[in-house]
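As a warm-up, study this chain.
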Amino acid sequence: MKSQERHEQLKAMVKEKYGKIAEQSKDQNASSCCGAASRCSTVGYSIMADDYTQLNGYIATADLGLGCGLPTEFAQIKEGDTVIDLGSGAGNDCFIARSLTGESGKIIGIDFTQKMIDKARANAEKLQYANVEFRQGDIEDMPVGGNTADVVVSNCVLNLVPDKKKAFAETFRVLKKGGHFCVSDIVLEGELPEGLKKSAEMYSGCVAGAIQKQEYLSTISNAGFVNISVQKVKKINLPGEIVKDYLTEEQIDQFRNSSAGIFSLTVYGEKPENCCAPGCCD
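Now compare it with the structure written out below.
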């Protein structure tokens, strides 16, 4: 299969799966152990998610338990900032970000799935947040002008994007000079077993779409970002009832005893003030 065809198939699958997840509550996603899947064949989102409930701006109806970190905790968001959230879902990180920017800031959520956009807009309307908006679009081709954002955040979404090079190039483009990003995402160290790596359903659960940690950081650097720093690393342990759908008992033992691992990584980077690279002045 050609690479572009594979990319389009993965995007369609992610859109369908997360459209179903948009119709469920956080508790439903967690209790099913596999979100919207009909059986336990994708990663249980609660396995990866961090607790948002004590953060200012937290809105329970916007929390679907889909994250793998707390990027806003390290994003250095200030009052009056314009913040873009990539893969904004039902609006959870957007509303947390708004509590930091105040009414003088602006929050733009971008999501690939129209049902997520509809849910996020309904949440924002109930809250009467005039400075929070949601746009349907592709992270590889964002519906935002260049040099727009002071800060870009994202939570467990970029590994669902087939072309991460484009995603980070677009992140670079939409940031102002001197702006910065902070994202939480899933990365690998060592090689996953083929059964996990090739599964399209595991892709929608954020695992098979993950790349090696060093490749991830290199992609960020190659996009032109500077002062890149890892803020937090958390190991993700997949429960046996999920892994057994993809691996034999022997393969599970080999995987558990290997140096390979799945990690949640929160990383920060800046767009240079004095920037000459493509995307600096778009």
